[in-house]
Amino acid sequence: MSNKIELEIINTSSNPMPFYATQDSAGMDLRANLEDIVTLKPLQRQLIPTGLFMALPQGCEGQIRPRSGLALKQGLTVLNSPGTIDSDYRGEIKVLLINLSDFSVQIANGDRIAQMVIAKYEKAQIVQVKEISSTQRGGGGFGHSGVK
């Protein structure tokens, strides 16, 4: 059932190429490419390089997401989650991490810091109108449908 997307990657780090840990993994781990250990204090954020450069096919994006284990055990998450890598971007892939714990966290070269999911997307044709269709929900926003 797999429709493989060809993803061209240049790896300038000493870390292995990204790969899927299991046959059905949606994301591949991204690793820190660091010369020195980075210490993130509580509520501190920092852009962490990966040493990866890639060419995504047109119509695809790279979604940078937190790793659940890091979030649970260390309080590290991706600040702009999910971060989007556009298909025309050719710079180094970097991950914006934030420490939401109440203790300092160290990040070393080779640490798995995030995961990347490759996703296809649709472009919308913008049509300006005077009215939009109504629904049962209407303009109800945050919490409108209840919590239970």
Biggest β-sheet: strands ordered side by side in the sheet: 2-11-6-8
Name the structural class.
Answer: mainly beta
Q: How much of the polypeptide forms β-strand, as a percent range? A: 25-35%
Q: Total number of helical segments?
A: 1
**CATH architect. name:** Distorted Sandwich
The averaged pLDDT comes out at 93
Q: List segments where confidence is low: pLDDT < 50 over at least 5 consecutive residues.
A: none
Largest sheet: 4 strands, antiparallel
From N to C, what is the helix and strand string? EEEEEEHEEEEE
Q: In the CATH hierarchy, what is the superfamily? A: Deoxyuridine triphosphatase (dUTPase)
Q: What is the CATH topology?
A: Deoxyuridine 5'-Triphosphate Nucleotidohydrolase, Chain A
Distance between the ends: 36 Å
Question: What is the 3D shape?
Answer: globular
Helix percent band: under 10%
Radius of gyration: 19 Å
Domain module count: 1
Molecular structure report:
This protein is mainly β and 148 residues long. It has a single domain (8-120), classed as Deoxyuridine triphosphatase (dUTPase) (Deoxyuridine 5'-Triphosphate Nucleotidohydrolase, Chain A, Distorted Sandwich). The protein has one helix at residues 68-74, and strands at 8-11, 28-31, 38-40, 45-49, 52-55, 60-65, 76-78, 83-85, 94-99, 105-107, 112-120. The strands form 4 sheets. It has a 4-stranded antiparallel sheet, with no helix packed on it. A 3-stranded antiparallel sheet has the order 4-9-7. The protein is globular and about 55 Å long. It starts with 7 loop residues before the first strand and ends in a 28-residue tail after the last strand. The model has no long low-confidence stretch (mean pLDDT 93).
